[in-house]
Amino acid sequence: MIGVGKQLVEPARFGWVLMVGTVCFVLPYVLLASLAGFLADRFNKRNVILACNVGEVVLMVLAVGALYLDPLGYLMGVLALMGSQIALFGPSKLGSIPEMLRADRISTANGMIGLTTVVATIVGTAIGNLLSDITHQRGPGSLWISASVLIGVAVIGCLTSLAVWRLPIANPRRRFPWNAFRDTWEDVRRLAVHRPLLRVALGIMFFWSLGALANMNIDQFAAEGGT
Q1: Which residues are CB-neighbours of 101 under 8 A, at least 6 positions away?
Q2: Does residue 4 register a pLDDT over 80?
Q3: 138 lies in some domain
Q4: Which domain holds residue 202?
């Protein structure tokens, strides 16, 4: 049996749990793409960034509840909410770069954002595995360590977002995307016309898809090897 939180999962189901968890985390990126763009254009990006970081603190509190209560459906629901928070956060974060920097600094800033994102993902995965090992070795009574890390990192992110400049609203007349699927499809069509941007989007998609598949398989092989 393999632990997920306090819950034990049979090795045969571990791959299924990883797959469902990945879908719950990634699907909001597609479903909320239009809404995320609307928030970035219609409101002050600093306010959206700050609101998303406050939301992250709330989500980490829910995640701590998931660690203690531990029904698998609750865990997946919190994971989906985390994916939603990141999806809504992305356009405001990245869209603020060209509004704060000179044109000749945008590429460097994008590169730094991408680098820090990858490094944070790797470090977060390593720390998550370490916290999981500590919890299983010391028992449920040590869950407060994971809780402190989750909420502490979220609070630090919330505080650092206060340093973001207040930026002008990009499009105060933009309407709410009531038909999100149509708007997302139109965005994809416009992206397909601009071949350089399409290649960049495909490259990003390939990179993160490869990383997700590698992470899923490494976790599964390590878990099965440990049994």
Answers
A1: 109
A2: no
A3: no
A4: 2-96+144-226
Residue with tokens 């698998």: 72
pLDDT tens profile 48-77? 999 999 999 999 999 888 878 767 788 889
Instruction: Tell me the Ramachandran region of residue 4: left when phi exceeds 0, alpha when psi lies from -120 to 50, beta otherwise.
Output: beta
- Long-range interactions of 211-217: CB distance < 8 A, separation 24+: 211/121, 212/22, 212/26, 215/125, 216/15, 216/18, 216/19, 216/22
pTM: 0.82
Question: Is 128 part of a structural domain of the chain?
Answer: no
| Residue 137 · residue 146 · CB < 8 Å | no
- Residue 130 within a domain: no
Maximal C-alpha separation, the chain: 58
How far is it, in rounded angstroms, from Cα 14 to Cα 81?
A: 21
pLDDT at 154: 94
Task: Work out how many domains the chain is built from and give that number.
Answer: 1
* Pairing state between β 7-9 and 2-4: antiparallel
Domain assignment present for 25: yes
